[in-house]
Design brief:
- The protein is an alpha+beta fold.
- The chain has one domain (5-90).
- 50% of the residues lie in helices and 16% in strands.
- The chain contains three helices and three strands.
- It has helices at residues 5-30, 60-76, 81-84; strands at residues 34-39, 45-50, 88-90.
- The protein has a three-stranded antiparallel β-sheet with strand order 2-1-3, with helices on one face.
- Helix 1 (5-30) runs antiparallel to helix 2.
- The N and C termini lie far apart (41 Å).
């Protein structure tokens, strides 16, 4: 029996979600002060939250790291674009 087209689409979506989760998780591990961020519909980061200390201000480098991760992800998986639009990501605490 051949899987239905909707099941194939679901499998593709799950694979893309797994790639997104892996990339975002790696970003959070690489930048420990990053608590979360949201993406606009045009995939630009907004509402970037950081765990900081007095005097610390998140700079352009942090935004650049987020944008670079998104560009790499989209280059590898163009089908991820629709799953990223308007989405919020937050660090998962164990």
């Amino acid at each position: 029996m051949k899987p239905s087209e909707s099941r194939l689409q679901e499998i593709r979506r799950e694979r893309v979600e797994a790639v997104i989760d892996g990339r975002v998780g790696a970003l959070f591990r690489r930048i420990p002060v990053l608590c979360g961020f949201a993406l606009k519909a045009d995939l630009q980061p907004m509402e970037v939250a950081v765990h900081s200390w007095p005097g610390y201000v998140a700079g352009e480098e942090l935004y650049g790291d987020i944008v670079a991760m998104l560009e790499d992800l989209i280059q590898e998986r163009p089908d991820a674009i629709e799953l990223l639009r308007g989405r919020t990501f937050a660090r998962q605490l164990q």
